[in-house]
Every structure is written in structure tokens, then in C-alpha cells.
Design brief:
The chain is an all-alpha fold. Helix content is 81%, strand content 0%. Helix 2 crosses helix 4 and helix 3 runs antiparallel to helix 4. The radius of gyration is 22 Å and the shape is flat.
Length: 94
Amino acid sequence: MSWEEIDGASVDTEGAKKQLKNRQAEAAELAKAYSRCFDSDEGKKVFADLNQRFIYNNDTSFGSSNINYEAAYHNGEAGVVKFILNQINQAKII
């Protein structure tokens, strides 16, 4: 590729901006859906259980046969709950 080709290359900035706005709108709508889902009494109850089960009571025993694997597994479980919490918090900001 030469400098002339690079200089002459057209960049569709308007199309890129439109795609970005669409992705942001979709992400905002998804965050609001998470918030609505866990805003009901049942949703709050389920989310409280998820917190207890996968964050607060999710310890890895030092006697585990493969402690690194088990710790990573529990971290992944907690990550899902943290993602849900992040979506709920994002919906409040939007």
C-alpha cells in the first residue's frame, strides 16, 4: 500500500458514528432490562440469593485437590453476579 492509497482512502466516519450510537442504545436498553428484571420483589430476592451463594459464601477450601482451578471457577461464578450488578447500576445512570 502506498501513501497515495492511504491518503485517498475514504473513511465513513458518519457510518461509524451511527454504528456506535446503535451499539450504545442497545447496551442501554439491555442494562434497563436487567434493572427491570431484578427490580421486582422476586428479582430482589433472587439477586440477594445470588450474592449470598456466589459472592459471600463462595470460598475455596485450602484442602482442594486443585485449588487454582476451583478458585478460578468460583471467581467466574462471582463475575456473573458482578456483571448483573453492573448492568443494574448502569441503568440507574442512563
